[in-house]
Amino acid sequence: MSVRALKGNGRWWALAGCLLWLTFTFFPLYWVAITSFKTPLGVVGGPTYIPFVDFEPSLSAWSELLSGQRGQFYNTFIASTIVGLSASLLATVIGSMAAYALVRFTFEVKLLSAVIFVVIAFGGYLIGYNFLGLRQGPSLIYAFVAALSLAVASSRLRLPGPVLGNNDIVFWFVSQRMFPPIVAAFALFLMYTEMGKMGVKLVDTYVGLTFAYVAFSLPIVIWLMRDFFEALPIEVEEAAMVDNVPSWRIFFGIVVPMSKPGLIATFMITLAFVWNEFLFALFLTSSKWQTLPILVAGQNSQRGDEWWAISAAALVAIIPMVIMAGILSRLMRSGLLLGAIK
Amino acid sequence: MTRNDPIKHVFIWPALLIVLVISIFPLIYSLTTSFMSLRLVPPIPPRFVGFGNYIELLQNPRFWHVARTTSIIAFIAVALQYIIGFAIALALNARVPGEGIFRVGFLLPMLVAPVAVALIARQILNPTMGPLNELMALFGFPNLPFLTQTKWAIGAIISVEVWQWTPFVILMLLAGLQTLPDDVYEAAALENASPWQQFWGITFPMMLPISVAVVFIRLIESYKIIDTVFVMTGGGPGISTETLTLFAYQEGFKKFNLGYTSALSFLFLIVITIIGLVYLAILKPYLEKHK
């Protein structure tokens, strides 16, 4: 550590730069916090900066918000919390297992099998929808099952053509995030509606929203965790393998504890993504499982420029993330996690 | 390096299945509708038009304008994020005084919902009641049109993007910096290498792989920008700050022109793929040189 520490003047320049950035970072947050304690008159009268000196703080915006005059804040808050925590936990677990597999195990997928999957999924859907008179939902399910089973079966055969390796699979996962979310959101809404017609209600349900969030967090989890796993020394795992420890125990007993900082950082990023996500929540929920960003965004269009109320509503969405950041950064710094690496 | 073990299927199939299920339907649905003329309001029966939607789009000057605006916002914002983020990550890694406070504080913006950020930005940038107006009035420029004139509005959107996403760059680069081995720096210090030489000779090359990944993620995400623009300017004035996703939103969910929207999103996908491939192709020789 000491080698890279700054010496002399550089240290103070760095401090000045950091303080400047800190001001830039904190001013908007400070501003929203004090605005939520202003009265309507105090906002319209021009900018004021320091409570008790510049203006007399008032709790009117908060009492309005908490008494439920501005929408179902409690339900929305609880829904956001449940969906956010479970989706990011699931995504981190499933994603890091896949990332570990892609770093340590050999995967070979024949390009032809992948092509078979895509062709049969598309063809089966089009045939089912246009010629067999099936509706979108069933034709999609049949096409998916047929495509998947044929693709898996075909991979057992000795097919010609190039073979895709681990990096290609990672690239495929990551490329999912390139897809413009607006169309994915709308298509998902249509798919969920079709499922609803078949008796499986997914629109405005916990399962539907969480599932969508897990799927759209997985690419980023896999990419981030792959970098962390690749940086781990393989010697420890090799030593365990010599002792015939099964792979799942190597993963959960050795790899996961060693990569806790990475896992926590990934979980944190995923949770922030899910908590703040706007587009999917807009399409996939209507009332019961509506999340906070939707409610907050609605404040402006419903009431106009009522900054005192909008600030209070925005803070409800902001504060939990701030608390979480505090807790997690404490965890990251404490010996509890760092000690595990040794 | 890698080994073979049947358990690998247990590890990878949950992720694979979920992503397959949830990615294949939007793909099938939007690719098939992009070749059709399909409107929900007023409902007209779908009609096959081949590449009609694509040709119409490529001839629409609005598409090119929107693509240009999105690129300007994405490239400038990501460049600033990377430069500022790297500088701050270096300072934090070098144990600047008060590093613990900075470390927590700097991460906050990333965790704030973009919708909320945009609402705060609107308050601060308000041309009569906002604090920034008061600051500018001190310098003799009162009532600047921050959100209602093209150049100011684009600048405002870029600033909000930089404010919100530099923390992501800091977080990733700091994690990368901490994995760099100390002995290289000890050797460099023995050779009396200046900090400037150490940075360009050791830190920057060793950080190149993670830098490439971070910039790539940010670039792709920036191209998808909608909520900030939507709340801050609504694409205005006129269409001068409209981005690709906002354009798709307007076409798809105001006009319910689904075929056109799907074609637009595939063009969007192609644009992003080309940018991604060019980016990786340019950087590949450097990455391999430093492996």
TrEMBL record, chain A:
Which SUPFAM superfamilies does this chain map to? MetI-like (SSF161098)
The protein's UniProt keywords, in alphabetical order, are: Cell membrane, Membrane, Sugar transport, Transmembrane, Transmembrane helix, Transport
- Keyword Cell membrane annotated: yes
- Keyword flag Nuclease: no
Tell me how this protein sits in the membrane. Multi-pass membrane protein
Q: Where in the cell is it found?
A: Cell membrane
Where do the TM regions start and end? 12-33, 77-102, 109-127, 169-193, 205-225, 263-287, 307-328
A cellular-component GO term for this protein? plasma membrane
One Pfam family, short name please? BPD_transp_1
Cross-referenced CDD domains: TM_PBP2
Q: Where is the ABC transmembrane type-1 domain?
A: 77-328
Q: Taking the first listed entry, what is the main subcellular location of this protein, grouped into a coarse class?
A: membrane
A single GO BP term for this record reads: transmembrane transport
Where in this chain does the entry annotate a coiled-coil region?
none
Tell me, what does this protein do in biology? Part of the ABC transporter complex MalEFGK involved in maltose/maltodextrin import. Probably responsible for the translocation of the substrate across the membrane.
Q: Which family does it belong to?
A: Belongs to the binding-protein-dependent transport system permease family. MalFG subfamily.
Name this protein carries in UniProt: Maltose/maltodextrin transport system permease protein MalG
Write down the species: Phyllobacterium sophorae
From TrEMBL, chain B:
What transmembrane ranges does the database entry give?
12-31, 72-94, 100-121, 152-177, 197-217, 229-249, 261-282
Gene Ontology process terms (BP): transmembrane transport
Keyword Cell membrane listed: yes
User: Is the keyword Transferase in the record?
Assistant: no
Tell me which UniProt keywords the record has, alphabetically: Cell membrane, Membrane, Transmembrane, Transmembrane helix, Transport
Q: Name one GO cellular component term.
A: plasma membrane
- Source organism superkingdom: Bacteria
Please list the residue ranges annotated as the ABC transmembrane type-1 domain: 67-279
Task: Name it.
Answer: ABC transporter permease
Matching PANTHER family, A to Z? BLR7065 PROTEIN, SPERMIDINE_PUTRESCINE TRANSPORT SYSTEM PERMEASE PROTEIN
Gene3D superfamilies (UniProt xref): MetI-like (1.10.3720.10)
What membrane topology was assigned to this protein in its record?
Multi-pass membrane protein
- Location of this chain's protein in the cell: Cell membrane
Family the UniProt entry places it in: Belongs to the binding-protein-dependent transport system permease family.
